[in-house]
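REQUEST FORM: STRUCTURE PREDICTION
Request ID: SP-0412
Submitted by: Lab K.M.
Chain count: 1
Length (residues): 147
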Amino acid sequence: MLHELAEIESRFGESAVDDVRKAANLMLRRQFLFAGDRGATHAYEVLTSPRFRIYFASLFDALGYDLRISEAEQWVGILPDVHLDWFPRMRAEHTIVLLVLTLAWQEEVNRGGAESRAVVATTLNALFERTSGCQRPLTGRPWPRHA
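STATUS: Completed
RESULT:
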């Protein structure tokens, strides 16, 4: 990877190497970037640039990630390689929270209530009400109530 960075520097200059490093660092911290995210536009452009795409794919592959780019939807992300067992699994409770969020988002999109870039606003109380009748997976016991 260092050889490739040196090649990027010789072809595009030292500022390009800084941009590549910043974009890679941001991807590792956030995992997904959207072109319109505050502070991520330049990194998105660097990550999707044909000049650097092979470098980023190789870099993230070496780290155990698969680089995914959707130019139509203007996002870029890294997903853990499913063949490696290096990454922690999500707990069932966390998966349920994500599923409830997905359901709330999808229903609002279906109603036409999504804002620009498919942003949907909700409240914690609205999400909590959706889970109030749910049972814990595998045990069938209700979720604990906190006062």
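NOTES: The first strand starts at residue 32 and ends at 34.
Reviewed by: T.R.
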